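Incident review: delayed structure delivery

Summary: a single-chain prediction request sat in the queue longer than the usual turnaround. Root cause was a stuck worker, restarted by the on-call engineer. No data loss occurred. The affected request and its eventual output are reproduced below so the record is complete for anyone auditing the incident later.

Affected input:
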Amino acid sequence: MQPPGPDLLSFSEDDLLASIGESLVGRSALPRSRAELIALGRAWLQANLNKIRELVCPHAPQLLKETNLEKLVTTIADMLAAVFYSVAPVTVAVLIVRVGVEKLCMPGPASESSDG
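Output delivered after worker restart:
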C-alpha cells in the first residue's frame, strides 16, 4: 500500500469522517450535506470498531514503537485492507493514529462502543 500523502495526514477528524461517508454513499443523484457525510462516517466507524480492534490491537506493542507517522498509517492500513474495502483503509488508519493506538486498544469503558 502506498504511504498516505501529507494532505491526508493534515485532514481534520471531520474531514476524515466525511471521506468515509462519501465512500459509503458514492456518487448519488441526491448529494448529502457535509454533516450527513460526517454522521455516516461516524456511524460506520462505531459499527466496525470491534473488528478494527481485533485487527489492530494484537499488534499494539509493535505499533506503539513506530515513530514515523506515515509508516504507522501504512502498516495499520495494510492490516485493515483485507477486511474493509467499502472505505479507504488508509483513511481509517489515519483516524486510528489520530485517536491513538493505545487509546483504541486500552481495556475499559473508554474503548467500548456506545450501543452494541
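Verification: The chain has one domain: 14-22+33-115.
Action items: add queue-age alerting; document worker restart procedure.
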